[in-house]
């Protein structure tokens, strides 16, 4: 059996009982280590699971999956991922490869940012399409995400924006020369994300992401408990001007607030507002939210 097991969002104790049983019964256990950040050291996981873990980088998961799936038709093999297994398309792909080889598969779910985002107080059933925001370069500034955000905004829905991660990436020169030299890890910050959104708004000019009148909520280390979790709310202008360290450690996510904003959502999120009066006034005057 090939198991793909979600580890949740915090530490070694977030694994489900079902997931832990599968890990302990596996002959090999791989830890996928590039689509998200694990908030606990690998050694601590190994001690808790009482199993050695094999780190699986991008190359292994995406192009060398045969190594992971080897003998899984005869014995149990597990792949551990941060969050939920279906939080990244990579994991869907490896399940399809296992099925093509006739290997039985089983997915064990866990919490992910897709449901933990509710910690900010915005109601999950008011969310539309999730989008990803990649690092811009001097020559590459993809803006297709804007169309998805606008579609959500036109329906009054919130948008969860997942911020880019660069782990085990090669520079263009090293890639061209075939050198296995990797750049240091990079994680997109809230201020960088908001700056990129504002930049594309200045080009599109539909008003979808008007900096002074678009409400947003920044999240960091959701599910990590009160000591690590950070939530900051404000207009895009508030967030882009807010101190970088106020947003907490990566990984970061951003929610763009939709116009179908309920007064209970405003009241819950206002505890995280950079400027309480501006948050409430914008919700009332721009979003049309009925507030006392």
From TrEMBL:
This is diphthine methyl ester synthase. One of its GO terms (molecular function) is diphthine methyl ester synthase activity. Keywords: Methylation, Methyltransferase, S-adenosyl-L-methionine, Transferase. It comes from the Eukaryota. Pfam families: TP_methylase. Pathway: Protein modification; peptidyl-diphthamide biosynthesis. S-adenosyl-L-methionine binds at residues 9, 84, 87, 112-113, 163, 222, 252. PANTHER family: DIPHTHINE METHYL ESTER SYNTHASE (PTHR10882:SF0), DIPHTHINE SYNTHASE (PTHR10882). InterPro entries: 4pyrrol_Mease (IPR000878), 4pyrrol_Methylase_sf (IPR035996), 4pyrrole_Mease_sub1 (IPR014777), 4pyrrole_Mease_sub2 (IPR014776), Dphthn_synthase (IPR004551). Residues 1-239 form the Tetrapyrrole methylase domain. Coiled coil: none annotated. It comes from Armillaria gallica. Homodimer. S-adenosyl-L-methionine-dependent methyltransferase that catalyzes four methylations of the modified target histidine residue in translation elongation factor 2 (EF-2), to form an intermediate called diphthine methyl ester. The four successive methylation reactions represent the second step of diphthamide biosynthesis. Its EC number is 2.1.1.314. HAMAP family: Diphthine_synth. It catalyses: 2-[(3S)-amino-3-carboxypropyl]-L-histidyl-[translation elongation factor 2] + 4 S-adenosyl-L-methionine = diphthine methyl ester-[translation elongation factor 2] + 4 S-adenosyl-L-homocysteine + 3 H(+). Belongs to the diphthine synthase family. In the N-terminal section; belongs to the precorrin methyltransferase family. The keyword S-adenosyl-L-methionine applies. GO terms for biological process: methylation; protein histidyl modification to diphthamide.
């Amino acid at each position: 059996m090939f198991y793909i097991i979600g580890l949740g969002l915090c530490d070694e104790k977030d694994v489900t009982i079902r997931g832990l049983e599968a890990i302990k019964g596996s002959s090999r256990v791989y830890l996928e280590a590039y689509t998200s950040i694990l908030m606990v050291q690998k050694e601590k996981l190994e001690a808790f699971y009482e199993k050695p873990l094999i780190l699986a980088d991008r190359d292994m998961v995406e192009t060398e999956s045969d190594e992971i799936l080897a003998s899984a038709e005869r014995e149990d093999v597990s792949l551990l991922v941060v969050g939920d297994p279906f939080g990244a398309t990579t994991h869907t792909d490896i399940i399809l490869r296992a099925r093509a080889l006739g290997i039985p598969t089983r997915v064990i779910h866990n919490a992910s940012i897709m449901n933990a985002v509710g910690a900010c107080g915005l109601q999950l059933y008011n969310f539309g399409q999730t989008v990803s925001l990649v690092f811009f370069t001097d020559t590459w500034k993809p803006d297709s995400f804007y169309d998805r955000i606008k579609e959500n905004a036109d329906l009054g829905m919130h948008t969860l924006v997942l911020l880019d991660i660069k782990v085990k990436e090669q520079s263009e020169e090293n890639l061209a020369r075939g050198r296995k030299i990797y750049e240091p890890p990079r994680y997109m910050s809230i201020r960088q994300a908001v700056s990129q959104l504002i930049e594309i708004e200045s080009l599109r000019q539909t008003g979808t992401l008007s900096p002074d009148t678009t409400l947003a909520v920044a999240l960091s280390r959701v599910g990590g408990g009160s000591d690590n979790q950070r939530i900051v709310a404000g207009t895009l202008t508030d967030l882009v001007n807010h101190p970088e360290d106020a947003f907490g450690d990566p990984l970061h996510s951003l929610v763009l607030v939709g116009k179908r904003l309920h007064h209970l959502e405003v009241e819950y999120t206002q505890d995280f507002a950079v400027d309480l009066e501006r948050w409430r006034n914008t919700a009332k005057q721009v979003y049309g939210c009925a507030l006392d």
